[in-house]
Amino acid sequence: MQNNYKPLRIAGIGYSVPDTVITNNDLTKLYDTSDEWIYTRTGIKERRIVSGNESAVDLGVEASKNAIEKSGIKIEDIDCIVAASSVPPQLYPSLACHIQAYLGIPNHIPAFDMTAACSGLIYALQVARGLIGSGLYKNILIVAADNNSRHVDWSDRGTSILFGDGAGAMVVTASEDDVDDVLSLDIKSDGTIGHYIYMNTPGKNCPLVEPCDELDSYIHMAGRDVYKFVVTTLPDFIDDCIKQSGLSAEEIDYLVPHQANQRIIEAMQTRLNYPDEKVISNIEYYGNTSAASIPIAIVEGVESGKIKLGSTALLCGFGAGMTWGAAVIRLREGIC
Ligand code: UT7
Known about the structure:
Layout: E1 8-16, E2 21-23, H1 24-27, H2 35-42, E3 46-48, H3 56-71, E4 80-84, H4 95-103, E5 111-114, H5 120-133, E6 139-147, E7 165-174, E8 182-189, E9 197-198, E10 220-221, H6 223-245, E11 254-257, H7 262-272, H8 283-286, H9 293-303, E12 311-319, E13 323-331
Parallel strand pairs: 4-5, 4-6, 11-12
Antiparallel strand pairs: 1-7, 2-3, 6-7, 8-13, 9-10, 12-13
Helix pairs in contact: 3-4, 6-7
The chain binds oxa(dethia)-CoA.
Residues 33, 37-38, 41-42, 118, 157-158, 161, 197, 221, 223-224, 226-227, 260-261, 264, 288, 319 line the site of oxa(dethia)-CoA.
């Protein structure tokens, strides 16, 4: 057990994606691009996006239901909800409060959002670990959900090719057998390079004072800077996280990275010297679903037979902030 904290058990993981598929060829109707350019640079062939009034709330509710069902924990025993969304459908009420309502959780439990963009799942797991580890709460629902497709500029071919919509959820609980499913976890941020990926929430000053700048509300990204930052910063950080887990890189069964770019995933794979079977990638079909990408990849990996449960996995994510995080976790039988 680390730091005299109460150990945590990952009890259930679930996900949900919208039905609507947009392929790279579909995007050629919007701007000058090609399936070949997008696939070669990113590994993405298609992404799922919301349609009509469907939103991250619906996806988050569905993912939560799946995770709760797998966990075997009764819905009324959930005592806290932590939601990680880059852009929740409403800034308030929070995504977590919406999910509490839609799940019909009758108790007045705390439900709140936290923002760490695509690192959100790992950040939320650290928050849950602190809350469970200290004994404050016992059964926490973590939800990561985003509908990025509503926030990209669909005339900007640098960003709109990348993102997809989706949700992942994890139920974590105080471990009954003293085994901690989080072998190591670390999160970091560097606000001085926040301009690499940003999105404004525009507003207007009171008419009695000088007006503020008029801003758009699209996702902006300096793709090359993000790419360089990730491939230079993450490898040593991941090495440290592996060391803290007490396992060697070889002993960890799977790498489940944030699905941002296949070339970034391959750079991590090369650094870890992992064969293809150990690396979970589904970016081809979903694009970058922000904080949801890791739980989606875990559950899909299990469904497709690539991940065998009763194993360990190295998770790593990065995103706006810039934020980044990594964890070595245990994937017990029956969690998804
Ligand atoms: O969780 C969020 C994390 N974000 C990321 O992980 C992003 C990491 N970065 C990337 O994935 C890459 O930087 C991108 C895929 C976004 C872009 O690839 P790139 O190799 O960095 O391309 P670029 O932006 O430097 O653009 C190269 C060229 C440009 O043309 P010129 O100026 O050289 O004539 C662009 O206009 O490619 C052009 N281009 C495109 N061409 C066809 C940019 N986007 C497209 C496109 N189709 N979709």
